[in-house]
Structure formats: C-alpha cells, structure tokens
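tl;dr need the bound structure. longer version: we got a ligand (adenosine-5'-triphosphate) that a collaborator sent over and nobodys looked at where it sits. i said id run it. heres the input, straight from their email, havent touched it
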Amino acid sequence: MESKLPKPSALKRPTAMKPTLPFERIKPNFGTGLSNKSQMICDSLQSLNGFQPLSKDLTNFQSYDCTSRRARAASPDSLGLGSTASRLKIRRSRSACDIRDMRPIKRTEPTLAPIPAKAARTISNAFASASITNKPPRIGTSATNCTGVGTVKRPFSTNPAKQATGGKSTMPTQKNLVKTNSGSATAATTSTVKPQTKRIPPYDFKARFNDLLEKHKIVKERLEEKSEQLNRLKNLPEQLEDTKSQLKLTTEELQNCQSKIECLSKQTKLQQQKYDSIAEDLSKTTAKFEELRKTYNNIKNEHTQLSSEVLQLRQRTSELTETNVVLLDEINVYKEQLFRSNMERKELHNTVLDLRGNIRVFCRVRPTLECEHDKLLCGWNFIDEATVEISNLEAISKNKPNAHTFTFDQVFHPSSDQESIFEMVSPLIQSALDGYNICIFAYGQTGSGKTYTMDGVASNPGIIPRTVELLFESIKNYRNMGWEYEIKVTFLEIYNEVLYDLLSNEQKDMEIRMVKNSKNDIYVSNITQEIVESAGRLRELMHIAKMNRATAATVGNERSSRSHAVTKIELVGQHKEKQEITIGSINLVDLAGSESPKTSTRMNETKNINRSLSELTNVILALLQKQDHIPYRNSKLTHLLMPSLGGNSKTLMFINVAPLQDCFVESLKSLRFAATVNQCKIAKAKRNRIHNNSLANTSGVGN
Ligand SMILES: Nc1ncnc2c1ncn2[C@@H]1O[C@H](COP(=O)(O)OP(=O)(O)OP(=O)(O)O)[C@@H](O)[C@H]1O
C-alpha cells in the first residue's frame, strides 16, 4: 500500500517553498496574546483597505500565513531546535500540508473519503503533544496552522465576540480556536501525566490526508462564512446610499425641524407677549371686576332698600288711589256745587246790577291841564260820591246864586284815577262773560276827557284796555270751571253819518241791519270781525283802529275825535259738560265831542256830531216818556245803540265835563242830559243763554 504513495523525496519541493515550518511550531509559544495582537493588526489593516473579495482574502491569508512562516523561519536555529535530520522530517511532514494548503480551495463539499477513527485519534494526539511540549509537532503543525488560520480570519471583525457571534453556526471562531488551544493546554496539562507521543508519520499519507480533509473542512466553513459576510458587505453600499439618503432626508427634516423650531420659538415669543398682555389685561379686568362687584353690591343694597320703599309706596299708592277715588267723587260733588253757586252768583250779581238800574250814569270831571292853569274854573262842589254841584263863576261874582246840583250813579272827582274808575266798571264786564249785553259810552263836550276815559294813554290805560285785560283773566278762571270762551271783535266808526270799518281801509258799503225775529237786535253788514286769542292781539287791533279813526284839532282839543267810535267785543262761552252756551257782548263807544257851532271851524262835522247827539237825547227822552215810537233810526248812532238803550242791555254812560269856566254852558248841558238819561229806565236785561242746543234767548246776538 505504501508503494502506491509518492515518495517523500517527491514531496520536498513544497517544503522548499515553506521554510517557515519551525516558526509554525513556535507560534503557540507566543500564546493567544500575540495571536490576538496580530489579529487586531490584521483587522485594522482590513478596515483601512476596505472590504476585499474573498479570493483575495484567501490569497492574503495564504500569503500572510506563508510570509509569517517565512519570517518566523528566518532563523530556525536560533530556536535551538534540533538537527538537520529532524528538520528534514519536519520538512517532509509539513510539505504535504503546505502542498495541500496551496491547492486552490474548492467550494464544493469534500469528496474525500472519511479518515478512519484510528488515524483521527493519532492526529489529535499529535496536536496535543505539540501543544504540551512546545515543540514543533511532527504532524500536529496542522493544528498550529489552524490557529494561524484562525488569526487570519480576524480581518473581518475587530471584535472577537462579534466574530464568534457571526460565525457561530459555520466554523469555530477565534474564541473557539482559543478554546481549542486552551483545551489543548488542558490536554497538555493532562498529557503531562499521560503524554501522547503519537504523530502522523510522514509516510502515513492517509492520516495526513485526513488531516488535510479536516483542515479543508474548516477552511470551507470559513469560506462560507466569509461569503455570507461578503454578501452582507455587498449590501452595505446600498445600505450606505440608503443611509445617506436617509441622512439627507433626516438632515432636511432636521433643517425643517430647526426652521420649525425657530418659527415655534418666534410664535412662542409672540404667544408669550400675548400671554403677558392678556395677563396684564386680566389683572386690570380683575381689578375692574372687583370695583364693579363692589358697585354691584352697593346697587344691590340700594335696590333692596328701594324695593322695600317701592313696596311701601305701592301700598301708599293703593291707599291714595282709594282716597283719590273718594276725593274725585267729592270733587265732582263740589264742582256741581260750584257750578250751581256760580250760577247763583251770576244771578245775584245781575240782580244787583238790575237794582242799580240797567242804564247807569257816571259823571267824571277831568282835572285842569297844564296848559289851562291860567283859566278860570267853574264852581264845583262834590257833595258826595254821587252828587255834584256846579256853579257859574260869573253868577257868583254877581251874587246870583245859581248852583246846579246833579245826582248820578257815581261822580268822579278830578283827582280820581283810571284804576278806581275801572273798579266801578268791572262788574259790568263780568256780566258780559255771564252772557249779558253791555254798553259803555262816553258823552261830553270836546276836550272833556271822553277818549282819555275810554282809551286812556299808554302810561295810564282807560276802560277799553283794562276791559281786555279783565276779560282774558276772567276767561282763565272760567276755564277752570269748565267754560271755554271765544272772543270776536269789530271796530266801527260813524263819521258824518257814514259807517267805516276801522280794521280795513277798503271802501265798502256797510249797513246797520236788524236781526230776524228780533225787535231790538241789530248787526252791521260787511264789517271785519276778527277772533282774538290773546290780550296782546286785541291791543294790536285796538291800536290799528285808533290810527284809522278820524281826528282833527278843535278849540277845546288839539286832537279831537271827530267821529263816534264803537268797539264791539263778542264773548261766546261754552260749558261742554253742562252743554251750556252763553253769548255776551260789550259795546264800548267813544262819542264825538259836542261843540258849539259858534266856535266850530268844521261846520259839517259839527252839525253831524251835534245832530247825532241830539237824536241820542231824543231817544233817551222818548224812552223816558215811554213813547210808542222811539226814534232810533234818526241817526246812525242811535240806530247802532238801539239794543243798548232800549233793549236787552246793561248800559253805562260816562258824562265827561271839563272844569273850566269857559266850558260851563256845555258842561251844564251835558250834566242835564246825563241827569235825564239817569232817569231813564230801560227794560230789564236778559241773559243770552243756550242750553241743550235750544236757543233760550238769542237777544243781542249780532250777525
Ligand atoms: N282825567 C284826566 N286826567 C288827565 N288828563 C286828562 C283827563 N281827562 C282828559 N285829559 C286830557 O285832556 C285832553 C283832552 O282829553 P280827550 O281827548 O280825552 O277829550 P275828548 O273828550 O275825547 O275830546 P274830543 O271829543 O275832542 O275827542 C287830553 O290831552 C287828555 O290827556
């Protein structure tokens, strides 16, 4: 069988290529520490050179192995290892291994036949003996090579633990190898007791072959492990690219995150500022809220107090309401009583006036004017308030007593003022409001003071202005009793027996006409009648009428009224509750002054004036004598005064006289006329009263 095997000499060539066999044996003496260091150096180199393909790795592995063997085999003698024969044996024994190591590694499964168990044990023993004796084993160098192979394996990993983990399923790792060495050491320790000297003889090619097969198996496993690692490493660029792209994405995300963080930090700052301002506002609002709450509490307390007061007031109101109802009933009763008493008062008032006479005469002697101080006065003796005595100054000087005594309803001394005179007139004005017709006229010589008595002056108003004031004052009081009044006025002038409208400058035909179905009631056609609602408006109209009245200078008066002026005020009162209407009227007449024809310079005016006054005297005398025919129509004046003189009217005549001796004759005539009028008894005046829309008495209603 051995003859078939190649001769050892034929195996020398590979030995020459590997003179480092002694170093192989020495290597275990450096221990695992040196092996680990070299492994680390290899790992570092591998990591610096990058990953290499497995073939190259294997080449390096082989070259490294061989080089290291070569380096270590540089001075085998220095190790003191034996003779040349031994070296030859060793060379022979290694040559097969080296040859086998230099063969290209096949990746396929080994097809060699299994090593017999005996041969395997022999190899094991050879390894063990080599480890214990620190001598280069004859055949056990393969184990040393295994260790060397194990050290070359390291370049793929610097971490022995990792290496062990990575190659756990395929081949023994460094750790395993170390273990193997340790085990070998243990075995060596054991072999100290029982040394194993078995080795593969150089001729035992079968054992050597098996050994090589074992090595081949180990290397093959390592190759597979490397292949797997290589595959994993091949994927590393892609993984690197992926990682780079991920890194890029991550970087972008990081930048985005940083920009977001910046934005968020800005927003955070803004939000912080907002938060601060809101916190400040909140503190202010809280303070305000506290104030408001205090105010609310105060108001609440006040509200509570007011509520209780309101309750009390409501109770009081209900009580007062009940009382008010009672009082309203009483008021209605009192109103009724007042109305009735007022009616009674009116009746009594007018009864008194009737008793005094429906035509009354007041005599007024005017004072001397400043321009008259050098003139002689008549002898005047004011016996009482109703009796006056006038004497001719010339008769007194001749001792011819000729005193003329006159009695009137009232005699006014020259010192009497306008106010005291009006007090005597005002009851008549009151009667007009009660629905009676009133007529007040002034008769007398020119310059005797008629206009002064009726109109007065601005500083001292007469009867007409005072009548206006009294009317409107009385209307106010009557309104409280339920009466409403309407006042209508007309201003008429009779000049030279012609009628003129003093409120209009138009030329128009005006006639005195009788009211239908009435004996004495008259009205004037085409006259301007104006409704006045205030005393001021009535005064304006009076002023207009005064400006339109004809005046001229006379001997007795620089500004003599040369016409008869009639101011008519119509009063229509209405009581809605009682459905009662009263209609009264006031005729205020300022007659033209009588004048002696001897002294007159305006004869036509004087004739007309004197004639109308004469007709007035005739009417009065006719009434006094109770004649059947009263000549009212003989003059415009008597015709106009017909209702006042002979009808349903209360009439008051002022007889004005001048105090001068020069006026004695005219004054005596006027006084005698007045005395005649005073004797005249006209019909009893009736009240113009309409009740329930039925005309009770419409006498004296104009138009
Ligand atoms: N009681 C008086 N007190 C003061 N002055 C008076 C009084 N009566 C009249 N007079 C003055 O006498 C003058 C004449 O009076 P008045 O004009 O009123 O007379 P008369 O009768 O109207 O005259 P006629 O008829 O011409 O118009 C006026 O200047 C007037 O101011």
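gonna send this back to them w/ a short note. The domain at 357-694 is CATH 3.40.850.10 (Kinesin).
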